[in-house]
From TrEMBL:
Main location: membrane
Keywords: Cell membrane, Membrane, Symport, Transmembrane, Transmembrane helix, Transport
Domain of life, source organism: Bacteria
UniProt xrefs under PANTHER family: AGSS FAMILY TRANSPORTER, SODIUM-ALANINE, SODIUM_PROTON-DEPENDENT ALANINE CARRIER PROTEIN YRBD-RELATED
Membrane topology: Multi-pass membrane protein
Subcellular location: Cell membrane
Family statement drawn from the similarity comment of this UniProt entry: Belongs to the alanine or glycine:cation symporter (AGCS) (TC 2.A.25) family.
Entry protein name: Alanine:cation symporter family protein
Source organism of this protein record: Brevibacterium spongiae
Length: 512
């Protein structure tokens, strides 16, 4: 089974997917005239605008839910594995994938808002790739094909989010906790199941509340710790950047020509771990984006583009500098001298052999002895826990989509309980599994979703750019942008058509 998982992972994450992710980012950047750069002021302004309603969450809460999914083990253990297998240059390719991926995130999240719907049972907004894949071409001859496509994506997402991906998060928690406090993995597994059981039964409102409190706190504290390490190792800033860019582009490092053949691995691991971390193009962001209460879909599209920056440029960079500036990545020659590496620290051989959460733990511990392991363990616990919660929300959204035609509320309730049980089992099993098997399974889930979603949004992209032009036009006129589908020629946006009709009838609608 392990050999099959590794083979399938290699097939899914072939160079074709790497090129697809980068190529889509380049294309959407050109098509949007670099919206992720031009609209940076609006990106960060829109994060704090809008209010929640009985039906939807605020823009900030939607950002927090999205960051809960994005900011997780990928930002700590994922960065370490990227550096371990792809060299320090993998970090630069994570930055590149984030910069390009922010435009992809804008497109997918805007489409999520355009084609979202209101759950008739709970009143909550739901949306995502499955919804826009089905709705965008509903009145064309291809409607049957796209409906099947949407159902395939929904099924893959339910499996990935409830079975394939949670194990990575819980595995990193149990590994970090065991390394810091010698707690057995079974003890951590039990604790995680209890905590997760309490949160997931509360629905989107409890998830949004939990995420909006935990995500900003954990991200800020973690970045502050990284800044402290930067100050202590200020003399390592230039060498670290030189090391990363030399590795990223295969520039020969002196007579050893150490990086001459590593560029392919740097790109592969940088993009793969970048997508796992920031999730741009994976199709997860649109789920959170769809839950937001906004007056124009582009508002949340911009917010979600910003979340990619926060995830990779801030949090991932913090981890990378912790590792590289403290000497936790080194390559030694036969005579024991350092061929590649910076920093004054010395990696313990046992830790060096297994890149993961132990690298930043050891790096921070070398600065403040006895503190690093515990701090990273707590950070990973908060990062991973909120990510698992976000996974459940996305799995439930797609389960509701698949069972949307089922009128029997009892069947739907049973489906949700089965889903909750499945994700709790995955968390428990993952906490007691080996790191390698957990990562391989998770990478397959991420890759399958990325294949399906990126191809989908390349086909369905047009409404996102119509909305961008409309948003920019209204903003230039000094207006608070409001979306009216008919005015800009967007079809099948049922929720928004109904919203416009209610406004014209004089009914009150949430302002967002």
């Amino acid at each position: 089974m392990s050999a099959f998982i590794d083979w399938l992972n290699g097939v899914v994450w072939s160079s074709a997917l790497v090129y697809l992710c980068l190529g889509a980012g380049v294309y959407f950047t050109i098509r949007s005239r670099a919206v992720q750069i031009r609209q940076i002021p609006a990106i960060f302004t829109q994060m704090f605008k809008g209010k929640s309603s009985n039906e939807g969450v605020s823009s900030f809460q939607a950002l927090a839910i999205s960051l809960a999914g994005r900011v997780g083990v990928g930002n700590i253990a994922g960065v370490a594995t990227a550096i371990g297998f792809g060299g320090p240059g993998a970090v630069v390719w994570m930055w590149i994938s984030a910069l390009l991926g922010a435009s992809t995130s804008y497109v997918e999240s805007t489409l999520g808002q355009v084609f979202k719907e209101q759950d008739p049972r709970t009143g909550e907004y739901r949306g995502g790739p499955a919804f826009y894949l089905e709705k965008a071409y509903r009145h064309t001859k291809a409607r049957g094909l796209f409906k099947v496509y949407g159902m395939v994506f929904a099924a893959v997402t339910v499996i990935a989010m409830s079975f394939m991906l949670p194990g990575i998060q819980s595995n990193a928690i149990s590994g970090a906790v065991e390394n810091a406090w010698s707690v057995p993995t079974w003890g951590t597994a039990i604790a995680l199941v209890i905590i997760m059981g309490f949160i997931v039964v509360g629905g989107i409102k409890r998830i949004a509340h939990f995420a909006s409190l935990a995500v900003p706190f954990m991200a800020v504290i973690y970045i502050v710790a990284a800044i402290a390490v930067t100050v202590i190792n200020a003399d390592q800033i230039v060498p670290v950047f030189q090391l990363m860019f030399t590795s990223a582009f295969g520039i020969d490092a002196g007579p050893e020509a150490a990086f001459g053949g590593i560029i392919g691995m740097a790109v592969q691991w940088g993009v793969q771990r970048g997508i796992y971390s920031n999730e741009a193009g994976q199709g997860t962001g649109p789920h959170a984006a769809s839950a937001a209460e906004v007056s124009h879909p582009s508002k949340q599209g911009l917010v979600q583009a910003g979340s990619v920056y926060i995830d990779t440029l801030f949090v991932c960079s913090a981890t990378a500098f912790m590792i590289l500036s403290t000497g936790m990545y080194k390559v030694f020659g036969d005579d024991g001298t350092t061929i590649i590496g910076t920093g004054r620290g010395q990696m313990v051989e046992e830790i060096a052999a297994t890149p993961g959460e132990k690298w930043p733990q050891a790096g921070l511990d070398s600065m403040i002895h006895g503190f690093g392991a515990s701090f990273i363990a707590i950070s990973i616990f908060l990062f991973a826990l909120t990510t698992i919660v976000a996974y459940y929300y996305m799995a439930e959204t797609n389960l509701v989509y698949l069972l949307g035609k089922v009128k029997n509320t009892f069947v739907l309730a049973i489906g949700k309980r089965v889903l909750q049980l499945l994700i709790l089992i995955a968390v428990a099993v993952g906490a007691m599994s080996t790191a390698g098997s957990a990562w391989a399974l998770g990478d397959i889930g991420v890759g399958l979703m990325a294949w399906l979603n990126i191809i989908g949004i390349l086909i369905l992209q047009q409404p996102a750019f119509k909305l961008l032009r409309d948003f920019e036009r209204q903003t230039k006129l000094g207006l608070d942008p409001v979306f009216e589908p008919e005015k800009i020629g967007v079809r099948n946006a049922d929720f928004w058509d109904q919203r416009v009709a209610r406004l014209k009838a004089g009914e009150a609608v949430p302002e967002g």
